[in-house]
Specification:
This is Major facilitator superfamily (MFS) profile domain-containing protein. About 80% of the residues lie in helices and about 0% in strands. By secondary structure, it is mainly α. It has 2 domains: about 1-185, Growth Hormone, Chain: A, CATH 1.20.1250; about 185-225. Helix 6 runs antiparallel to helix 7 (about 95-125) and helix 6 (about 70-90) runs antiparallel to helix 10. The relative contact order is 0.14. The mean pLDDT is about 85.
């Protein structure tokens, strides 16, 4: 969803006029029908691709934090990246702020995609684990739909500030990720991996709502021992 908020502004004339005047001029030319020719600009490509490159690189760091610091803390780091990136982009007054914001958002994406699916798989009971991960993908798709609808609406705001609203609204899911990571507990698997066995057992007992968790607990311990 955050990606769609960010990417949708590149089709807004006011945004292009402010940060990419060369591209804006091409979009206004008569007889130039090729979008490739209109949007062929190194700065615009850097703005677009910086997020994806940052996400790819951040994944390597996220794999370390997910394993050594836990899924919960990794999601918190992702939320902080998202908030910083959203603020930089929404308040941008130059190209550098745009790119730095996109880099922060890309780091958030890398950390989120590493930690959230793993967190859902480990926290959910076996019988609904697959359904919960599919629901996660469904919610991502629904978020993309809503982001595109919002971009469609903000592009028509008079006064030239619609693009700032579009970029700023990405702060809503960013804050939700941050607050959510503060409210949830870390997964039993993560705690056990870090040799916090009693804490992992207590969390497992809490999320399963029963004291009869010994078989699952022993399975997690054995899986952790084998993986290490």
């Amino acid at each position: 969803m955050i990606l769609e908020f960010q990417g949708g502004v590149t089709s807004m004339p006011v945004f292009l006029k402010k940060f990419f005047p060369v591209v804006y001029k091409r979009t206004q030319e008569k007889g130039l029908d090729s979008n490739y020719c209109k949007y062929d600009n190194e700065g615009l490509q850097m703005f677009t691709s910086s997020l994806y490159l940052a996400a790819l690189i951040a994944t390597f760091g996220a794999s370390y934090t997910t394993r050594s610091l836990g899924r919960r803390l990794t999601m918190l780091i992702a939320g902080i990246f998202f908030i910083i990136g959203t603020i930089l982009n929404a308040a941008a007054i130059n190209f550098l702020m745009l790119v730095l914001g996109r880099l922060m958002l890309g780091c958030g994406v890398g950390f989120t995609n590493q930690a959230v699916p793993l967190f859902l798989s480990e926290i959910a009971p076996t019988r609904i684990r697959g359904a919960l991960n599919i629901l996660f993908q469904l919610n991502v798709t629904i978020g993309i739909l809503f982001a595109n609808l919002i971009n469609y609406g903000t592009a028509r705001i008079k006064g030239g500030w619609g693009w700032r609203l579009s970029l700023g609204l990405a702060g809503i899911p960013a804050v939700m990720v941050t607050l959510g990571s503060l409210l949830v507990v870390d997964t039993p698997n993560s705690l056990i991996e870090r040799s916090r066995l009693e804490e992992g057992k207590a969390v497992l007992r809490k999320i399963r709502g029963t004291k009869n968790i010994e078989p699952e607990f022993l399975d997690i311990v054995e899986a952790s021992r084998t993986a290490n």
